[in-house]
Amino acid sequence: MLESSHIPAPGDIQKFFQVFNIDLQKVYLPSFRLQNGLYYGLIRTGDGKKLGVIGEKEALLKDPFSGKILNHSPSLKLCDLFLENTLVLMELFPFTRPVSVLSFPATIGTGDRLGLATPGHLRSVRKFSARPVLAQQSIRENNQTGRNFKEVIADAAWSVFQENYQNGYGADGDHLKSLDEVALALDAGVSMITLDLSEKLNFEALSMPSEVIQRKFKEEIDPGDATVLLHLFLDKEFTFRGSRGDLSIRFSEEEVRRNVLLFDQAIDFSEEVYQLIMKRTNQKPLIDFEISIDEIPFPTPPETHLFLMIVLRHRGVRIDSLAPRFIGEFQKGIDYRGDVQTFKKQFYHHVLIAGHYGNYKLSIHSGSDKFSIFPHVGEIAEGKVHLKTAGTSWLEAVRLISLKDPSLYREMHQKALSSFGEATKHYHVTTDLSSIPSIGSLSDLELPCFLDQENSRQLLHITYGFLLRSDLREWMFSTLIQYEEDYTSLLEKHIDKHLNSLGIERRKSE
To answer: 290, 294, 405, 454: which one is catalytic?
Structure first.
């Protein structure tokens, strides 16, 4: 048992570790805490970030973390941040385990693709009346970064411990498209599933001639189901009232048939996944469930949104958030493109439907840097919104590199240019490479300007996977770790800008 008199004072912690001659580079003071008679905290050594456990040797031998004990009085156990120790961390310090957070009015998915961004995200979010979804990755992103869901959650958990953030955070298996992917994410410990229905939709149903729709509806839809579905919609007027005006929707028989054929497989798939989640969680609401239809070829009309939600509720499926494809363009890493007034009107209609059919949130995907519409989103949704960002934090890492290591940035820029064509197979952008200045014509001091221009932002955004899998990877991580606090500061200010623009209330305690 460690006596309180043996606990180093904050100003003496660094001196304490120097006794052990361990190439100490940094002490993360907010992480240090006394638990069960031992003193726990994170440090960085020449061999990377470690958990330090301070106490008498007998107590350290019983401590569940695996590590090497260095004898002294008190002694020190140095522990690597591998998976087994992550599980111990979550058991000993439950606030490091991801939990359901979407019931909180304002939430933001921050998507730490590098495993280095979460401290900056937390320093921002804790100032606002909001909750973060820190571990937010898709299968595509994991393939690009060479990580998996367990590693993403582990990185988030250690950062939560490092920053002593105890308000709760989420972990999102994002844009999952199959039962196997959902099961993989659940097995890893996510607290949120985002189900992407884009590959389960029959888009031909929207353009088929009326006679073909009539025939296919009769051939493909069970007669009993067809009768129920028609009864749910025909001869009914769905009216929604709100402070900005009312919305009234009626469906013709052909519109019902088109929507049934459009969503037939998607509804079955959603129900199957929902039942899997309920089975895994013993019917307890431990997993936030989001449905995404944002990666489809057309904006989601309010009528389509309403149809989907009525049928899902009829099947007993309840969701916590829905990501429609909003009108206008939500391209990666740049501001909204489109008519803001038209967006406001349609967004309001989506808010009315969501408030009536389950009071779920609207989720804004590719939400990074959409500053021209953020104030309207926050006001119309009355602060009840889920914003998803990810690439913007990667771009702040690139900005840091452009400021601190111009030679590295120049190498990254050239690699991005050579990879751009291949990267566009995964992302929809309208980047004009010809408008990006030649990097050879700019001085080192001018390089950060690339992070302020839309075309070069998109170039650097969508090529992140190629850069992270290149021979520049080690150089990039070394630079970001060397200037860790600078990166954290850039991120804090950038996420602040997002939350401020949304009008999210600041916490009074800050």
So the answer is: 290
Kindly provide the b/e burial profile for residues 486-496, where b requires at least 16 CB atoms within 10 angstroms of the residue's own CB: ebbebbbebbb
Per the residue annotation, which of 174, 405, 454, 484 is the catalytic one? 174
Identity at 501, one-letter amino acid code: S
Q: Which among 194, 186, 82 has a CA at the least distance from the CA of 140?
A: 194
Helices (H), 281-390: 302-314, 340-356, 374-380
- Does one domain contain both 69 and 129? no
Quick: pLDDT tens for 263-292. 999 999 999 999 999 998 875 668 999 999
Known catalytic residue at 174 = yes
Structure tokens at 470: 């290149």
**By residue range, what is the domain housing residue 480?**
91-196+390-510
- Give the residue from 53, 80, 107 where a domain finishes: 80
277 domain residue, yes or no: no
Q: Which two tokens stand for residue 133?
A: 């979804």
Co-location of 59 and 132 in the same domain = no
Q: Identify how many contiguous H helices and E strands the chain contains and give both numbers.
A: 19, 15
State the Cα–Cα distance between residues 186 and 490, nearest whole angstrom: 32
Taking 3-state DSSP, the helix, strand and coil percentages for the chain, each rounded to the nearest 5, stand at 50, 15, 35
Q: Is residue 290 among the annotated active site residues?
A: yes
Task: Show the 3-state SS of 479-491.
Answer: HHHHCHHHHHHHH
Query: Rounded to whole angstroms, how far apart are CA atoms 219 and 213?
Result: 10
Q: What is the pLDDT of residues 35-56, one digit of tens each?
A: 999 999 999 999 999 999 999 9
Summary mean pLDDT of the chain: 95
Q: In the chain, what percentage of residues exceed pLDDT 90? A: 91
* Contact in structure between 147 and 115 (CB atoms under 8 Å): yes
d(CA 262, CA 394): 36
79 by Cβ neighbours in 10 Å (0-12 / 13-18 / 19+) ranks as buried
Q: Are 71 and 55 in contact (CB under 8 A)?
A: no
pTM above 0.70, yes or no: yes
At 132, is the secondary structure helix, strand, or coil?
A: strand
Q: What pLDDT sits at residue 18?
A: 80
CB-CB contact of 464 with 142 (8 Å)? no
